[in-house]
C-alpha cells in the first residue's frame, strides 16, 4: 500500500461506466467494491463513473470509504468531436496534465493524480462502438505519470476495436496490469491466449448474486433488448421470435428481466404484450435481491451478464446474437469458458436445452484466475 507523506494511504481510483444504469456495469463495479471492502476497508476508494448520483443508489455502503465522481467521463464527453478518438485522447490528456485549464474539475483531477492505483474495471465500453472512451486510457496514463500510480485494466472486451491510428494499443501498452475477458480482445491487446481470460464478475460470483427463493423463480427467464440491435424493428422481431420459441417449448411460467430501465422500457412493453402472464423483474429488484436463476432452469438471453450469472448458477440456456461484431464475441467467450449454452440466430427454433451451465470446478478456476489479477493490482493478501 502506498502512503503519502502524512501517513494516510493514497486512495484507490476505480473507473467504470456504472450509473447508466445497466445490470452488467453495476455488477462489475459492485464486485470490485466488495473485494476492496474485504481486503482494504481502511483505504478511500473513488469511483469515477458516468452518473454518480445513480450509481450511489445501488452501491452506497458496499465499501465503507467509497465516494463517487465523474471526472474522466466528463472529460471524455466534452472532447467528443465526432468519432475521432485521437482528438478525445489529446483533450483528456491535456486536461489531466494541466488541471487549471478545467477549474470546475481541478479538485477531482488532483484526487485522480494522487491515487495509489488507477483501475479501469471491466466491461464492453472500450471499443469501436464508443471510440470516445479511449480517452479514459489517455487520462489514466497521464495521471499515473504525474502521480506514480499503478495502472490496471481488467476484464475488458475490446472488440470491435477502436484503433484507427493505433492509439488504443499504444495506450494499453502503458498500463502495468492488462487483463481481458475474451480471445479476440487478448489478441488485440497483445496478450498470450488463455482459457482463463474472463469477466470481472467471476472475481466475486456467489449465492449473494442469486435470489434466495430459488424454488419460486420462473421455469424460463427471458432477457431481450433494443440497445445495439442491428436495425430498426429488430428488437420487436426478437421478442416475437422468443414468443414463438416459448410456444414451441409449451412454456407458460416465464420471467422477463429488465437490465437497463431506460433502454429496455419499449422492448419489455412489447414482451409483456406478447407474453401477458410473464413476471417482470426490475433492475433494482435484481441488484437488491439477486438474479432469478437456478440450476436446471432455462434462459433465453441476448445480454451477456444474465448469460454469465445464470450460467454460473447452473442454468441451461440459449444466447441470441443481436449484433455479430459485439455480442457474438461476448456470448462465445462464455460458451467456450464453460457455460455450454447454445448460440442461436433466428429464425431457427431450437430444442429446449437440457444441459449447460458452469460446473463448480470451472467456476473455482475462473475465480482463482481473477484473484491472481487482483493480487497483481493490489498486492499480496488481495486474494
Summarize the structure.
The chain has 383 residues and is an alpha/beta fold. The chain has helices at residues 23-39, 52-59, 71-78, 85-97, 106-113, 134-147, 167-172, 183-189, 234-249, 261-274, 283-289, 304-312, 327-339, 360-378, and strands spanning 12-15, 45-48, 66-69, 117-120, 150-156, 177-180, 220-223, 254-257, 279-281, 298-301, 316-320, 342-344.
Walk me through the structure.
Residues 22-188 form the Polysaccharide pyruvyl transferase domain. This is Polysaccharide pyruvyl transferase domain-containing protein. Pfam families: PS_pyruv_trans. This protein is of the alpha/beta class and 383 residues long. It folds into 2 domains: 12-194, Rossmann fold (3-Layer(aba) Sandwich), CATH 3.40.50; 207-359, Rossmann fold, CATH 3.40.50. The protein contains 14 helices and 12 strands. The chain has helices at residues 23-39, 52-59, 71-78, 85-97, 106-113, 134-147, 167-172, 183-189, 234-249, 261-274, 283-289, 304-312, 327-339, 360-378, and strands at residues 12-15, 45-48, 66-69, 117-120, 150-156, 177-180, 220-223, 254-257, 279-281, 298-301, 316-320, 342-344. It has a 6-stranded parallel β-sheet with strand order 3-2-1-4-5-6, with helices on both faces. A 6-stranded parallel β-sheet has the order 9-8-7-10-11-12, with helices on both faces. Helix 7 (167-172) links the parallel strand 5 and strand 6. The radius of gyration is 21 Å and the shape is globular. The model is unreliable at 1-5 (pLDDT under 50).
Amino acid at each position: 500500500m502506498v502512503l503519502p507523506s502524512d501517513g494516510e494511504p493514497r486512495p484507490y481510483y476505480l473507473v467504470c461506466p456504472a450509473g447508466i444504469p445497466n445490470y452488467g456495469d453495476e455488477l462489475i463495479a459492485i464486485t470490485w467494491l466488495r473485494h476492496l471492502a474485504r481486503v482494504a476497508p481502511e483505504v478511500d476508494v473513488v469511483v469515477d463513473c458516468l452518473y454518480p448520483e445513480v450509481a450511489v443508489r445501488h452501491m452506497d455502503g458496499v465499501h465503507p470509504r467509497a465516494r463517487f465522481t465523474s471526472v474522466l467521463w466528463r472529460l471524455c464527453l466534452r472532447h467528443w468531436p465526432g468519432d475521432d478518438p485521437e482528438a478525445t485522447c489529446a483533450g483528456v490528456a491535456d486536461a489531466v496534465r494541466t488541471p487549471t485549464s478545467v477549474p470546475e474539475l481541478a479538485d477531482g483531477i488532483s484526487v485522480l493524480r494522487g491515487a495509489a492505483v488507477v483501475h479501469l474495471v471491466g466491461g464492453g465500453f472500450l471499443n469501436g462502438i464508443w471510440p470516445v472512451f479511449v480517452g479514459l486510457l489517455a487520462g489514466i496514463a497521464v495521471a499515473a505519470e504525474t502521480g506514480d500510480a499503478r495502472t490496471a485494466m481488467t476484464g475488458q472486451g475490446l472488440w470491435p476495436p477502436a484503433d484507427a491510428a493505433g492509439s488504443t494499443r499504444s495506450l494499453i501498452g502503458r498500463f502495468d496490469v492488462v487483463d481481458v475477458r475474451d480471445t479476440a480482445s487478448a489478441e488485440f491487446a497483445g496478450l498470450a491466449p488463455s482459457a482463463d481470460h474472463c469477466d470481472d464478475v467471476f472475481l466475486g460470483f456467489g449465492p449473494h448474486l442469486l435470489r434466495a427463493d430459488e424454488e419460486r423463480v420462473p421455469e424460463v427467464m427471458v432477457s431481450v433488448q433494443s440497445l445495439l440491435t442491428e436495425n430498426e424493428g429488430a428488437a420487436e422481431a426478437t421478442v416475437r421470435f422468443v414468443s414463438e420459441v416459448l410456444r414451441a417449448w409449451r412454456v407458460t411460467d416465464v420471467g422477463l428481466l429488465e437490465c437497463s430501465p431506460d433502454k429496455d422500457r419499449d422492448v419489455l412493453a412489447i414482451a409483456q404484450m406478447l407474453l401477458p402472464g410473464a413476471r417482470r423483474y426490475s433492475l433494482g429488484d435484481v441488484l437488491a435481491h439477486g438474479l432469478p436463476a437456478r440450476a436446471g432452469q432455462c434462459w433465453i438471453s441476448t445480454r451477456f451478464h444474465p448469460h454469465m450469472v445464470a450460467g454460473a448458477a447452473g442454468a441451461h440456456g440459449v444466447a441470441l446474437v443481436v449484433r455479430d461484431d459485439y455480442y457474438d464475441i461476448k456470448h462465445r467467450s462464455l460458451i467456450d469458458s464453460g457455460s455450454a449454452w447454445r448460440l442461436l440466430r433466428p429464425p431457427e427454433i431450437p430444442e429446449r436445452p437440457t444441459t449447460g451451465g458452469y460446473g463448480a470446478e470451472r467456476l473455482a478456476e475462473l475465480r482463482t484466475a481473477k484473484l491472481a489479477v487482483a493480487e497483481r493490482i493490489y498486492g499480496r493478501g488481495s486474494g
